[in-house]
Amino acid sequence: MTAAFSCPVFLPSTFSYNGNRYHGRIKIKINATSSTKVKTLNEIAGAGKGSSSLATSTEIGHLSQEQIRQRIPTKKQLVDPYRQGLIIERGVGYRQTVVVRSYEVGPYKTATLESLLNLFQETALNHVWMSGLLSNGFGATHGMVRNNLIWVVSRMQVQVDHYPIWGEVLEIDTWVGASGKNGMRRDWLIRSQATGITYARATSTWVMMNEKTRRLSKMPEEVRDEISPWFIDKRAISEDVPEKIVKLDDNARYVNSDLKPKRSDLDMNHHVNNVKYVRWMLETIPDKFLGSHQLSGIVLEYRRECGSSDRVQSLCQPDEDETLTNGVEQSLHKNMILTPGIMEGNGYLGPLDVKSYGYTHLLQIKGDSKNEEIVRGRTRWRKKLSTLPNSS
Amino acid sequence: MTAAFSCPVFLPSTFSYNGNRYHGRIKIKINATSSTKVKTLNEIAGAGKGSSSLATSTEIGHLSQEQIRQRIPTKKQLVDPYRQGLIIERGVGYRQTVVVRSYEVGPYKTATLESLLNLFQETALNHVWMSGLLSNGFGATHGMVRNNLIWVVSRMQVQVDHYPIWGEVLEIDTWVGASGKNGMRRDWLIRSQATGITYARATSTWVMMNEKTRRLSKMPEEVRDEISPWFIDKRAISEDVPEKIVKLDDNARYVNSDLKPKRSDLDMNHHVNNVKYVRWMLETIPDKFLGSHQLSGIVLEYRRECGSSDRVQSLCQPDEDETLTNGVEQSLHKNMILTPGIMEGNGYLGPLDVKSYGYTHLLQIKGDSKNEEIVRGRTRWRKKLSTLPNSS
């Protein structure tokens, strides 16, 4: 129901809702109060005194100006013509049509993984936007704001079968479901609008955190009543037993130290953006491998957030045993739900045709006494066709 | 008529079309030939042999698959429903409605300069897309492809009066005009869709380069016949005498050395993206200044392109004499064209209300014997309102 990708939380596999203090360093309120709204508008107006048209037209009032400019719906909308969004799935799923933009593609004119992650965040927020439940925060509902709750993501998994190309029209479906008693799952499917072929799937897990105490929170009845009518029992990626990601240590093959978040890496919550994490992870893999392989899947397990003053270390380790990797990859493929594309024979022809390579990742903050994990990751890769022998 | 921002050219104020060899290092053809198309599609199909639905449905043929996925128009279109684009201005201007996405805003929920630059590139390319003139390259027309010509940008200027906020609906107008005998100007205006207030203006200058000889080229009659019907004699920014940007040397106040382009910084031409240049420039300014000021304008003069193996140095120097800076800034404001927003009193109240601060920038490649300029820049800044005394 949200997309605060930038605000991950420490989430052990079993955790207590009492006393599990979150180590975050959020510097501004995520759910804007009246005073932060005014401050934001001052920022927006921007120019020196009297030089800004927005600053001088005071008769409208600051708060309503932001409302006029954003126009967040207060009631459920079925169609959003500006975002090309549509409520589907008996009124609770969301579909948005997007065109792959020129700056969202990389050297091969194909959309980058970062662009896909950005589109996941965008469509998730637009889904909440359409629901009429969006408060002024980053995906929080009215009930969450009343309870000082924000969303934090604990896990994200993406599988990319085909990368969209520049100018291609895509349909992105997203929906939410229950995840245990107090969590929420959000899934995505990206399809070609022209052919209907599924290009990518993703799933994520979310929990709630009290913004003031920084502790994980149970989902209040009030919030459950808001969001549970939107739950759909359908999965983009069916995985019986989530693969456990081992924790790397200083013996990891590749280490990139002293990574420093820059001003341009911070999002509207003043946090290092989730996409930046992925960039740090992938940049630690040797260039030669990146040049000859294409990412087919990624799993991220978030442990804690990263502030703007932290120094980050990125570690990664290639799998030694390719056979093992392929076994895991194949079992993942077998467990995928049957989408129309697969059923029509457009999908995977068999386990023997899949050759994949795996990397394990860790981002951590180097501390004086001990290191603190930010996120663990697993990436899977396939060889680019043009580097295979006998490729056309 | 295009937006190859990533492919700047060395362009002295007077230059010879003969013998002025361009020092670029383009690694792939920008205007795809049949063979590069196939290679690109192999990249797109991506997965190992037989594991990709796109790779296996060979009956359609590779070339037509890319065409099906991109659907570049071969005739002029008046409306593009997917991009929300529209041909305006008696059939030759282009207007696109866009919504500011969640990942396009920074810490204050306002769109970043990088996002605006990206939207300029995107709308320029979509303008060519709609014209029916787009070949498969990065904004090149059919006549340009026949003559092995590509676009290179020599100058770019942006003025931002107000930064759009997350979720705001914008109208971006873009059009082209003549620039001398052999050049082209492309301008942009960004307006609030809700209020009609102009938020930002931009102008850019383009010339043609022979892709094979790397030399600047006159505009062939064939190409002039294609694009001149699209020329409009209107300017987003009226500037009588373009400010000359001085070249910084090693005495510059702030220097950031050993900047290295990363894989994720390369665009579909395998060049360092224009936006990355701006990021390198701005990151060299001290954090304290960036935290209390907002960029109001930028001018970029491109000298040569930057390849993926270059080591880049970013220099910048604040203006010593604020009075002088303000004088220049004010003359710029006085020369701006009268847009509806300004005429209705929504604009600048007078020179005395504008306090701006200037920085001069230089990006260069550190060579063994000498340095090579990539781009010179000038940025202008205003204090953020919230940091002023007595601000609300």
TrEMBL record, chains A, B:
Localization of this protein: Plastid, Chloroplast
EC code(s) of this entry: 3.1.2.-
GO MF annotations in UniProt: acyl carrier activity; fatty acyl-[ACP] hydrolase activity
Stretches assigned to the Acyl-ACP thioesterase-like C-terminal domain: 253-323
GO cellular component, one term: chloroplast
Organism domain of life: Eukaryota
The Acyl-ACP thioesterase N-terminal hotdog domain, residue ranges: 93-227
Keywords: Chloroplast, Fatty acid biosynthesis, Fatty acid metabolism, Hydrolase, Lipid biosynthesis, Lipid metabolism, Plastid, Transit peptide
CDD domains for the chain: 4HBT
Matches recorded under SUPFAM superfamilies: Thioesterase/thiol ester dehydrase-isomerase (SSF54637)
Main location: plastid
Role noted for this protein: Plays an essential role in chain termination during de novo fatty acid synthesis.
UniProt protein name: Acyl-[acyl-carrier-protein] hydrolase
The species this protein was found in: Gossypium aridum (American cotton)
